[in-house]
Design goal:
The complex is a heterodimer. By secondary structure, chain A is of the alpha+beta class. Chain A has 25 helices and 21 strands. In chain A, strands 8-14-13-9-11-12 form a six-stranded mixed β-sheet, sandwiched between helices. A three-stranded antiparallel β-sheet of chain A has the order 3-20-21. In chain A, strands 6-15-7 form a three-stranded mixed β-sheet. In chain A, helix 10 runs antiparallel to helix 14. Chain A is elongated. Chain B is elongated and about 95 Å long. Chain B has three domains: 288 residues, GroEL-like equatorial domain (GROEL, domain 1), CATH 1.10.560.10; 103 residues, GROEL, domain 2 (2-Layer Sandwich), CATH 3.30.260; 141 residues, GroEL, CATH 3.50.7. The longest helix of chain B is centred in the C-terminal third of the chain and has 23 residues. Chain B is an alpha+beta fold. In chain B, strands 11-10-8-12 form a four-stranded mixed β-sheet. In chain B, strands 4-16-20 form a three-stranded antiparallel β-sheet. Chain B has a three-stranded mixed β-sheet with strand order 5-15-6. Helix content of chain B is 43%, strand content 17%. In chain B, a hairpin with a 5-residue loop joins strand 17 and strand 18. The chains are: A alpha+beta, B alpha+beta. The interface between A and B is large, with 73 and 79 residues. Strand 10 of chain A pairs parallel with strand 9 of chain B.
Chain lengths: 720, 570
């Protein structure tokens, strides 16, 4: 009954599973990826390059595989992209972890790890690693994103403040996205289609709400037509309902419409009531009354210029007849999603037939530009020209393709693209911890790390004397000098100008580069410090770098350290003024909406590079270890992307070029022209780390040989 | 509570196209479709071992809908052909054969799928833009002022379906009927937006094909007894028609979700019948001559109407409702009282008719856009095939009305197109490759595969061991019979090219289609007089062929791009 796995074995098992999955997804990753054909139990066929779909179609039974698939699908639900990269990255992470366990034959071990090898050996437990992963994800990753990576970010908006989007940059973004999602010969066309759709639906005031609307109602906003070539797909104005008119009366001019959710014809009895028939005459009178009432309601609708009736239920023949007589077109049996979409677009509440009939005006009507049948491949649809009251201008996508499976793929990809844009248009909050104790001078800036260390000797010697310690951020050399003067001014500083100046030239090439670059990058990024920082800033500011425009702000931290701290106690920043003994502080910052990077593994290589640098400065072995593993695993993604390329475009060339550019402070050159969302990449990274943590914390898998049972909800019991 | 069941894991196979099984099944499918192609195509008999009826056909729509395909790759291929056929009716076999050929030819080359797909797409767009261009040498304008080209188009469709078993005379007769039926559906005084009417095909089995006919209006089949009971209507003016979509049988309609309590002694049936008779009175007082009901009319009401010299016909069925509404101009009535006078329509006249053993009630319209095509055939199987063919022809005529061009048939378009692509890729490869990463050698290889795929489609027109040639001037197709003596003098052996546009009296040079030949410039821009003089051309529908070409290449690309097949075993 029970099959158990050793704790250490779980990584091995997970690696095996992940490698199998990697083999499948890596064939369809990137611009060179190919299609996978899935059959459904019903016999239908589906073409897909969507990693999430593929993983689901496999119906995996292995428990770890199921954990992975669950993680992927929850990630996809949120972001709509990155399932394949998820698997590849996870696989490389597991490989890295696995390599550490059999250290004897491990060539990947780097010097840093060896230095701390002894310590690592003692606490080499998966739980420990998973804790380190959590720490990394919650406290370190955001900082690296914020402080180093952010300087490379481009913005998709042509004007950051108004968030205006130009077509060319959206095209770059979408083309790169569809490259990985649809067939090679269609990605250009589909991305153009999406671009058209996007710009046709948006008004200048439209914001993120449009993405939400399209994302929520995507099924209702597209129509699939089989048997036509893909190139016949198009965007059409208005809304297409996937049913035919019950009655169609051609109308033009002032067309008004109403939505009803119940039958217009009054019935003999409503639910729970009783209708007693005492005579035949009574029956006939009631029938007559019902008829007259229906007739009157329809006439009244007509008098109010209502020429279209949308109904979520089936209407009786009588209603249909009188609608036809009065020139009112009727569409019946709308789904609840269609009704709610229409109501959201035009903000219309359903029409309720008045009980006591009066000639008053009907308030719940909406104006429609047109209402006509639309024939797509000999099937009739209802085509409505709604006049939107919100910022969404209703448009529909007609997707054509030779087979349904291909149409579904395109539909899927378009939906995913909207999810991706929805995420991209949000600001991303970054929260992280900086540490400025003597042990980890790893905080934000490497340049002062050494100087920080130089404090240490006197610091520890003097015992309880408080030492202000600076972490400064400057934008350029001028301000660096300013900093230095500040440093001089501070009487209790042990360090001198000379020391500082001598330090800089002596540092390694990478370090010098970081000096300039980090400073610049921090000033480039808009960092929001919480209000609690303000007094601290003013009191202790050593360098306060500002630029002329308000886009760039301060990124500054100043932490006071005493020699007795270093235990790692964490306290919120707001308390810091009172508690001078804190060594860690929470910083919150945000990545503005619309951050993008060129495609082709740029994000991964950059993060890899900065993580390695970070790891070098790290003093805690777990942190170093985790950073190294993540940094190395990140390279797996560009490696997979460039797998088929040779020569100048092969992965080693790209990697060396990028790293060289980073070290010599040159602008990065990308071989590809697409863009990708940083938010998406960031979320992917965190999702994978969470998934890995989940896998690592499992030490035993128990197989239960019983049919799965439905879990009863506590609430549903109450309802009964 | 729903029962949850553990799902079985799926089966995942990599590189599906390389497996032997897929190759064999693909070649079996290819053999089936190629052997059906063209006027001399072989027929297929499809029957189910468990009984049911036998289908003899050579049409893709009938063939593929009966075939049970299990392999997912074949399923993609067949469904995409079926989807094409259901939207364009024609060129299904062409699409299927071309797709199979492309897959087969390209696989032999061993290039990467990326290159193949990219180049296939370039070649496809080259074909499409050529076929749509003014300089295209294989399409002719369709003149709607004369029936000649239209008849050619219909005749070509009929002759390409050998399972209809038509003689030459019958072909001529049916082509004329189809064209007439189509012309009857075009409204006479249409301005701007044309809404076509409908031709209803009425089956008349056990009759000779030559007895088929077209009548304006609608035929409602009924038994002789029923027909006798109908009163003869003698009236000079148009007849007033009421068309009911609701039941007139006296059922009590929906009473709502609550309960209805009927006191003892109250008869609802009588109440409803009273209501029906009131309705009858209203109809009589409105001078309605003809009452048609989709559902059942209560016998008492029927009798009442007959007494007042009103003809009542019930159980019309839902299929005839739309044409009836259109033809008579009525508003289908859904009420048992207070009928608006606008809801009535009219017909010019009614009469009874007898065709073969069947009796019909014939509604003759004032203005005809609805007509009935009485299609006769001696047995069920050929009738089914003939009906399908007629529908195809009617659809093709509709498509041609939208896009008034026709392609030269008989395989000439394909050979001409192949010659054009060879010439283009040979002389101007840069314009095709543009900024792509593909090399010229790759382009030559793929172009050769593409052209030979096109040429082997027309190669399969020949089933009797004959040879297929192409001329080096127009790039048209010429076929030689199997037992022709020697190859010395082609001019005497050949008479006409496949489409019938050119004859061999011109100074032409020929070569075998399958042999390698030097690229040449096929003559573009058809001379106008050439088109006018030829009365007996073989023509294809442009819209259907263009779409077929695109679907074939797109589907082939799709199949070549597959790297895995995941089969759900649940």
């Amino acid at each position: 009954m029970l099959s158990s796995m050793a704790a250490a074995g779980s990584v091995k098992a997970a690696l095996q599973v992940a490698e199998v999955l990697e083999a499948i997804v890596s064939c369809c990753v990137g611009p060179e990826g190919r299609q996978v054909l899935c059959t459904k139990p019903t016999g239908e066929v589906l073409l897909s390059r969507n990693g999430g779909r593929l993983l689901e179609a496999l119906h995996l039974q292995h428990p770890i595989a199921r954990v992975i698939v669950d993680c992927v699908s929850s990630h996809l639900k949120k972001t709509g992209d990155g399932a394949k990269t998820f698997i590849i990255f996870l696989c490389h992470l597991l490989r890295g972890l696995h390599a550490i366990t059999d250290r004897e034959k491990d060539p990947l071990m780097c010097e840093n790890i060896q230095t701390h090898g002894r310590h690592w050996k003692n606490c080499c437990q998966w739980k420990f690693i998973s804790q380190a992963l959590v720490t990394f994800q919650t406290q370190i990753l955001d900082g690296i994103m914020d402080q180093y990576l952010s300087r490379h970010f481009l913005s998709i908006f042509s004007s950051a403040k108004e968030r205006t989007l130009c077509r060319s940059s959206l095209e770059l973004l979408l083309e790169a996205y569809f490259c990985g999602r649809v067939g090679r010969n269609n990605h250009k066309f589909i991305s153009q289609l999406m671009c058209d759709y996007f710009f046709k639906c948006m008004t200048c005031k439209s914001g993120i709400d449009v993405f939400e609307l399209v994302d929520d109602y995507f099924v209702e906003l597209n129509v699939g037509v089989t048997g036509l070539p893909v190139s016949d797909s198009r965007v059409i104005a208005g809304l297409v309902l996937q049913k035919d008119f019950s009655v169609y009366c051609p109308a033009d001019g002032d067309i008004r419409m109403v939505i009803v959710t119940e039958t217009i014809q009054p019935l003999f009895s409503t639910s729970g009531s009783e209708f007693i028939l005492n005579s035949e005459a009574q029956f006939q009178t009631s029938q007559f009354w019902i008829m007259e009432k229906t007739k009157a309601i329809m006439k009244h609708l007509r008098s109010q210029n209502v020429k279209l009736l949308l109904s979520s239920v089936k209407q009786p023949d009588l209603v249909i007849y009188y609608a036809g007589v009065n020139g009112i077109s009727v569409v019946e049996c709308l789904s609840s999603e269609e009704v709610s979409l229409i109501r959201r677009i035009i903000d219309l509440s359903p029409f309720v037939p008045p009980q006591a009939f009066s000639q008053c005006e009907i308030s719940n009507t909406a104006l429609v530009k047109f209402c006509k049948p639309l024939i797509l491949r000999s099937k009739r649809y209802v085509h409505l020209g709604l006049i939107g009251t919100c910022t969404f201008i209703p448009h529909c996508v007609v997707l054509c393709g030779p087979v349904q499976g291909l149409i579904e793929q395109h539909e899927d990809a378009l939906h995913g693209a909207f999810k991706m844009l929805r995420q991209l248009f949000k600001d991303l909050d970054l929260n992280y911890v900086t540490q400025t104790s003597d042990q980890n001078g790893t905080s934000s800036l490497f340049i002062y790390k050494n100087s920080g260390e130089s404090y240490q000797a006197p610091d520890t010697g003097k015992g309880s004397i408080q030492m202000p310690y600076q972490d400064t951020v400057v934008e350029n050399k001028d301000e660096l000098e300013k900093t230095q003067t500040y440093l001089k001014v501070h009487s209790n500083l042990v360090i001198s100008d000379v020391e500082l100046e001598t330090y800089i030239p002596y540092s390694t090439p990478t370090d010098t580069f970081q000096t300039d670059e980090t400073l610049k990058c921090l000033s480039l990024e808009r960092n929001r410090l919480t209000d609690d920082y303000e007094p601290l800033l003013k009191n202790n500011s050593t360098a306060y770098s500002t630029r002329g425009n308000n886009r760039i702000d301060i990124s500054y931290e100043n932490l006071q350290v005493t020699d007795i701290t270093g235990k790692g106690s964490m306290l919120p920043v707001s308390c810091k003024l009172q508690n001078m003994g804190t060594s860690q502080s929470y910083l919150s910052s945000s990545m503005p909406a619309g951050c993008v990077l060129p495609v082709g593994g740029n994000f991964e290589i950059l993060l890899h590079y900065y993580l390695l640098n970070y790891a070098k400065k790290c003093h805690q072995s777990e942190e170093t270890m985790v950073s190294m593993i993540i940094a190395n695993a990140l390279l797996g993604i560009p490696r997979a992307l460039y797998k088929s390329k040779t020569g100048k475009y092969s992965f080693p060339h790209i990697y060396i070029r990028t790293v060289h550019a980073l070290q010599t402070n040159q602008p990065l050159v990308s071989s590809q022209t697409g863009l990708e969302s940083v938010t998406g990449k960031y979320q992917l990274l965190t999702s994978v780390l969470q998934c890995l943590t989940k896998i690592l914390t499992i030490d035993l898998v128990i197989t239960v040989k019983r049919h799965p049972q439905k879990v009863h909800n506590q609430d549903s019991e109450d309802e009964l | 509570m729903s029962r949850l069941e553990a799902k079985k894991p799926s089966l995942c196979k990599s590189e599906p196209l390389t497996t032997e099984r897929v190759r064999t099944t693909l070649s079996v499918l290819k053999r089936i479709v190629t052997s059906c192609y063209g006027p001399s195509g072989r027929l297929k008999q499809l029957h189910n071992g468990f009984g049911g009826y036998v289908c003899t056909t050579s049409q893709s729509s009938a063939l593929l809908s009966h075939l049970l395909v299990t392999h997912p790759i074949l399923k993609i291929l067949t469904t995409s052909v079926q989807n094409h056929v259901s939207s364009f009716s024609d060129c299904g076999l062409f699409t299927a054969i071309l797709c199979c050929n492309l897959i087969e030819n390209v696989q032999r080359l061993g290039l990467t799928p990326t290159t193949v797909i990219r180049l296939n797409k370039h070649l496809l767009s080259l074909c499409i833009s050529y076929l749509k261009s003014e300089t295209c040498g294989c399409r002719i304008p369709v003149d709607f002022s004369s029936t000649q080209t239209l008849l050619c188009l219909v005749r070509s469709i009929l002759t390409s379906k050998p399972a209809c078993m038509l003689t030459r005379k019958e072909t001529e007769h049916v082509s004329a009927l189809i064209l007439r039926a189509f012309l009857l559906t075009i409204p006479e005084n249409a301005e701007g937006h044309i809404i076509l009417g409908k031709s209803l095909i009425v089956p008349l089995k056990d009759q000779r094909v030559i007895d088929s006919t077209v009548l304006p209006g609608i035929l409602i089949e009924m038994s002789e007894v029923q027909l006798m009971r109908l009163l003869p209507i003698k009236k000079s003016a148009a007849l007033k028609v009421a068309l009911f979509c609701t039941t007139l049988s006296g059922d009590i309609s929906d009473t709502g979700e609550g309960t209805v309590v009927v006191s003892y002694g109250v008869s609802l049936e009588n109440a409803v019948l009273d209501q029906l008779l009131n309705l009858g009175r209203q109809l009589v007082s409105d001078h309605v001559d003809l009452v048609l009901c989709q559902k059942v009319i209560h016998p008492s009401l029927k009798q009442f109407l007959n007494m007042h010299r009103v003809t009542a016909i019930d159980r019309i069925g839902v299929t005839l409702m739309e044409p009836l509404t259109k033809m008579t101009g009525t508003q289908p009535i859904g009420s048992l009282g207070s009928i608006s006078p606008n809801s009535y329509g009219s017909v010019k006249d009614v009469c009874t008719a007898k065709f073969g053993s069947k009796h019909f009630f014939h509604l003759i319209p004032n203005e005809a856009t609805i007509c009935s095509l009485l299609l006769c055939s001696r047995n069920d199987t050929t009738w089914d095939e003939l009906k399908l063919t007629c529908q195809t022809a009617l659809h093709v005529l509709q498509l041609t009305l939208k896009e008034p061009w026709a392609l030269l048939g008989g395989g000439c378009t394909e050979t001409h197109l192949a010659a054009y692509i060879r010439h283009k890729t040979h002389n101007d490869p840069e314009s095709i490759l543009k900024d792509d990463e593909c090399t010229q050698t790759e382009l030559q290889l793929i172009a050769e595969a593409f052209c030979s795929a096109l040429e082997s489609v027309v190669g399969s027109l020949e089933h009797d061991g004959g040879e297929i040639l192409t001329d080096m001037k127009y790039g048209h197709l010429w076929s030689v019979q199997a037992d022709s003596p020697c190859v010395a003098n082609w001019q005497d052996l050949l008479s006409q090219c496949g489409c019938g546009l050119y004859n061999s009296q011109e100074e032409l040079s020929w070569s075998f289609l399958r042999s390698t030949h030097h690229p040449f410039v096929p003559q573009t821009c058809l001379p106008h007089e050439a088109v006018g003089s030829a009365s007996n051309l073989t023509l294809d529908c442009l819209t259907a062929k263009l779409s077929g070409l695109q679907v074939a290449v797109e589907t082939a690309n799709l199949i070549l791009d597959l790297s895995y097949v995941i089969e759900d075993k649940n």
